[in-house]
Prior knowledge:
Elements: H1 3-21, H2 50-70, H3 73-96, H4 105-156, H5 163-220, H6 230-236, H7 241-265, H8 267-294, H9 305-308, H10 311-326, H11 332-341, H12 343-348, H13 352-358, H14 365-377, H15 382-413, H16 417-442, H17 445-479, H18 481-490, H19 494-520, H20 524-535, E1 538-541, E2 544-547, H21 548-576, H22 586-609, H23 614-631, H24 633-648, E3 656-659, E4 662-669, E5 673-678, E6 683-687, H25 688-693, E7 696-698, E8 706-714, H26 720-733, E9 744-750, E10 755-763, H27 769-786, H28 805-814
Antiparallel strand pairs: 1-2, 3-4, 3-7, 4-5, 5-6, 8-10, 9-10
Helix pairs in contact: 1-2, 1-5, 2-4, 2-5, 3-4, 3-5, 4-5, 4-7, 8-10, 11-14, 14-15, 14-17, 15-16, 15-17, 16-17, 17-19, 21-22, 23-24, 26-27
Amino acid sequence: MNCRQRFCFALFALLLPAASMAQLPGLGKPEPAPAEEKAEAPATIPIANIPLKAEEDERFIQEAMLRAQSSHKAEAMARQLKEIQKSVNTLSQKSQTVKLEGVQISRLESLDRHWSFLDRELAQWQGRLQSSAKPLSEDAAELAARKQVWINTRTAAAETLAPPLLRSLDDLLVEFEKADRTISQPLTKLLDLGRDASIIQASVSRNLAAVRKQIAAVDHDLAVLDSDNLYVALTASKTDQAGDLESLKKGLSIEEDFRAEFDRSNEKPERVFWIFAALLLPLFLWLAYSARTLLKGDSRLEQYRKTLTRPFSAWLLLTVMGLLILQMSGPMIRIQLLMLLAWLPVMRLQPQHVHDGIGRWMYLTAVFYVINLVAFLLSQNPLLFRLTVLFNGLLMLATLAWLLYRSRTALKARTSRQLLVLRIIIGLSAVVMLVAVVSNIIGNVTLAGMLTDATLDTAYMGLFLFAVGNVVRAFSRFLFRATAEKLKSRTQHAGGLLDVMSGLFNFALVALWLYGAMSAFRIFRPMMALVKSIASFAIEFGNISITIGSIVLFGVSVYLSFWLAKTIRGVLSEDILPNMELPRGVANSISSLSYYALLVSGLMVALAAAGFHISQLALILGALSVGIGLGLQDVVKNFVSGLILMVERPVQPGDIVEVSNTTGRVRDIGMRATTLTTFEGADVIVPNGMLLSEKMINWTLSSDNRRIEIAIGVSYEADPKTVLALLSEVAGKAAGVTHNPPPSVVFTGFGANSLDFSVRAWTENYDDAVFVRSALAVDIHAALTGAGISIPFPQRDLHVRSIDPDILSQLQRSSP
């Protein structure tokens, strides 16, 4: 008999006597408890629900035990933690033999990267540990809660439940105990691993803090002499080849350990990247093959001929760029090796103006970079490191001096802004290298090494990014040339958008170069600290505190919101929506509503970025509601009317409307007012509320058709039927008059001096109605004149009752 059957049998045995006892007087209802004893009773299960609840909890117990038994994450987590602990212990042991006070800044940066990597690895492991332990801990908590309910039920109903039911409850509690033991084993292992990880985390944090403290000290004391002058250092040095070799091996061993750990951690992303890179190589080869044919007839791509015809160099350069992004936080020696690997494609893919300005001297960067890499490897030996840095600095200084002289000669031959900027950059670099050489000689080796590294890295990074930008621009323009031409021919904003995208790409390259340059010259961290201190300066108004950073961030966010909303509105209204088959006015409504929706969203984002909370926004909205109630009713009315106009679309830009005795063409429909341009050229601002509350005539709501009516009077001597036929013929042949509906001529009546007719015709273009009416009137006059039908004009008889005798005599003399 299983647990469920035992519960059903016990419940039947219990309910049978309970039903009999309910018929006895005084036993049907329990006595109410006194008021003072009304305390919160422990949770229990009603007797009628025991079988159902027992089945549910037994199923939960089985599921929890299966989850706990199938969870083998503790062993995998233990292996991963053991690998991290091994790496931490190895790095700690190798680092303890070196005094941080005597380590060069490049080696300190490498140690900082190594410890930061281990810190990230440990943090990710702890995140996985929490994810693994969470379902087990939730199951344990739920089991404990349910078990306590059954214990309370067992205790409260011990005297009233039948013995079979009590035995079933005891069996269920045994199942709970078994589930607790099953879950507690893997959960305890995970918790123990968490405690071990905390100990490792403390070690990593301590070492990382020590390295960063030393880096900060070096940055602070860059202007302080840290060694004897070069003469004293050379005369007092003692050669220890075994110790130097051991130091070199130790440094390489640390870098090799870092490389292995980093590769193990990034194995999947690197595998995906190499697959993607392998697929890109055939694409570059195909593009280069296609470009060779196209370049013969397309002069617009002539400036990219060298780049488009060197596909392997372009592919290798972009591959190195991708690896640098993946290895951004990896070993420094690998980054330097990757930059050295990219040297050949960087040189081959430079724009022509860079070759013209620097010439073949830029190929010496490979020599400088190799010497700098040797100096990095020799950083454990102070004297060898110092001499290597001095040799590299002198070589770079001599090269810069020659380039400075060469640029001066070139400027005398021709005036060029690019040459002038290049001369300024070369001059500043020469000054920096002169300071580096002098610092090395007098005893400030740290400053000399930093300036030499920074100058070389900044110059080479500039050449590298020049080449990357040249490759991206060349192949993107070649690949999307047809699409760009179609966009420029069909749309108005495509050219501007393409220019904006190109500008953003150039800005990103410049920003990346500036970041690298400031980091190399050790000014990025102090500058960021200064910016943070300025940005955190608070301006307080009572309980409201606003920081400088939030104000700047708010302004930038609002500007970007307006720019983005305006750009998207222009693209939608003039480029995308007009090419779609949409009902009349829908395109304008979509573009306008999108514009204002982006503005409102951008404003909310700007407020959130500035640090405003929901409560503060509620306060602002409350103040606005008070203002609306006091004096902004018309503004809100016009705003709502603008929304109604955009949704119902009774008037659209380009319509001819007449409102308040003003006729004009709708130029723009805003959220508050609509702008009309009258036929006299004046702009009239009409509030949106007036368009809905007052009578408005829209001449072009459903169509541009306009009826023309010309009233004509002819002599009483004319035959009306002849006139009707003549006018009908003229109206039917008139230019601009539609034939559906056809023109009509009616005899309207007998005037005082004429027979009155009316010519009525339709034209399909409202704007041409005035010119069509004028041409039709001219044709009617010509037709009537040609037919001998006169058009009477008003005549008056003058009766002179009295006249001066002198005037009468003059009139008589002048009359024939």
